Amino acid sequence: MMKTxxxxxxxxxxxxxxxxxxxxxxxxxxxxxxxxxAPAVAPTAAPATDPSAGSAAAPASTAPAAVPAAAATxxxxxxxxxxxxxxxxxxxxxxxxxxxAIMSMGSWYVIVTKLLEQMRMGRQAKEVDNEFWxxxxxxxxxxxxxxxxxxxxxxxxxVHATRKHDGLRGKVDFADFVDLCIHRxxxxxxxxxxxxxxxxxxxxxxxxxVGLFGTVWGIYHALTAIGIxxxxxxxxxAGPVGESLIMTAIGLAVAVPAVLGYNWLLRRxxxxxxxxxxxxxxxxxxxxAGSAAA
Length: 294
Hints:
Blueprint: H1 2-49, H2 51-73, H3 82-88, H4 91-131, H5 138-144, H6 150-163, H7 174-193, H8 197-229, H9 234-293
C-alpha cells in the first residue's frame, strides 16, 4: 500500500514541478541577458544624456589646432645676432667689440668735425676776398676778420713781424723775416687742419686686423667645442663660427669708412690750403710794399 501511495503522490506532484520549472526558466534567461545588454546600451546612451561630456570633448578636439597657430605666430629671437654675440661671448671677444666700437666712433667724429672745419674755412676765405682786401691797411683788414679764423692768425703774424724786427731779429733781412713769420703761421694752420687724419689712417689700417683677431678667437672656440663634444655637429660649431664671421664684418665696416674719409678729407685739405697759401703770399707782398712806401 505504501508503494501505491507514493506512486500516486509522485504522479500528482509531477505536473506541479513541471509548471514551476517552466516559469523559472524565462526569469533566469532574462537575468542573464540584462548584464550583457547594459554595456552595449551604455556607450550609446551616455553621449546623448550627459551634456557635460559633450562640452568637454569640443575643446579637446580644437586644442591641437590652436597650438600650431600659436607656434606659427611666436617670434623667435636670432641666437646668432649681435645681441646674442655680446651675451654669449667671453672677455676677449667683448674687448675686441669694444675696441672696434671705439675706433668707429673716433673715426666718424674726426670725419664730421674736419668736414665742418673745412666748410667754415671755405666761408672765411670768401670773407677775406670781400672784406680784407678792401681795407686801406693790413691792421684794418685784420680787424674785419673773425676771431679764431686761420686767415686772421696769419695776418696777425705778419703784422707782429713788422713790429718785432729789432734787436737780433733786425740783423735779418726784413723781407726774409716777414716771410719766415708768415710761413711759420701757415704751417701751423696746416698742422691744425691735419689733426685727426692720423687717427683715420690708423683705424683704416688696423681695424681689419682687429676683426681678424676676433675671427681667429671664434674659430678657436669652435674647435674647442668640437673637441669637447667629440663630433662636429652644427649646434656646436654654428655659434663660434658665426661669432668669428661677425667680427670680420665689423672690422671691415669700421675700416672702410675710415679709409674713404681719410682720402676724401685729404683732397679737401689740399683745396683749403691752396686758399690759405694764396692769402699768405699776397699778404707778404702787401706788407713789403707798405714798408717800402713808409
